[in-house]
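URGENT: need a sanity check before tomorrow's submission.

F., can you look over the HAT C-terminal dimerisation domain-containing protein record below? I want to be sure the sequence and structure line up before it goes out.
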Amino acid sequence: MDVRWNSTYLMLHRLLEQKNAVNLYSIEYGKVDTLSSNEWDIIKNLTTALKFFYEATLDLSFDDASISIVIPLISLLTRTLQVRSENENEIMINMKNSLYDSLNTRFSYIKRQTSLMAATILNPRFKSKHLNSDELDLAMSEIISFLTDYNNNSALFRGTDNVSLMSTAPFVLSTSTSNIQQDKEGLWDSHDNTPNQMESAGSEDQKTVLKEKSQNNLSEPLRVLQRNADIYCYWNSSPYLTLRKAVLKYLSASPTSVPSKQLFSAAGQIYTDRRNNLLGEKVEKLLLSVYNIRVFSYEY
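Structure tokens as predicted:
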């Protein structure tokens, strides 16, 4: 592949950690040419820029990751690449510009996908925060159109929206960003420190009950749910039962190859030199146990 941003970041990050050891080895043995002060500064700036891509990859690789995180990640990455600091040299500026252009080329179609916009506003951690007014209208129309078609011949307005469901797993409520622990200068800093523009939105010009319920959901503060909490558990106990059909449709898993690669890695750890005669049937059972025992909180 032409781009290996994460591998490059991990390599440079590790080299920067061992800076003193590398310089000391070069001085004592003289067999390795050490880097100049300017080259070390370049590596430091490179790791700062690539760190955000590494964080984005990790966010997409979690088992409970949803496609609702795609638009916020692209928005945050674009924003961080546009930030300029005083100590950046021409090399860093050119690199950020190159990353910015590559990001736009690869993901320019993202904000034209109404299903992704709908997933974003259904995520209680993001809602309309990373969408402009036109994109928000498209997302709302997508959700309302789906719900209208789905409930066309059913009792849509039974007044059950005030009934709460018992959650199958705990989720953490929070009203401030102080409970969200992050590293300094992380990818999500601009998201956590920016107020939601929809918090003060009223219910004017709402023509249907569906639109009113959607607007009520959007008008709730983002801090109702921590960003690292389980959004599926939140919706399982949410009072907006009318919107749950849309949640089941749009909050799907992100299409990454990470879980399958992890499965192959786990199989490789099971097949060792001393356990190379295991039957495939037993290996399948072991893998099934490893990846599903967490569902039962390791209680068996």
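My own read: The CA atoms of residues 67 and 79 lie 20 Å apart. The first helix runs from residue 5 to 17. If you see anything odd, call me.
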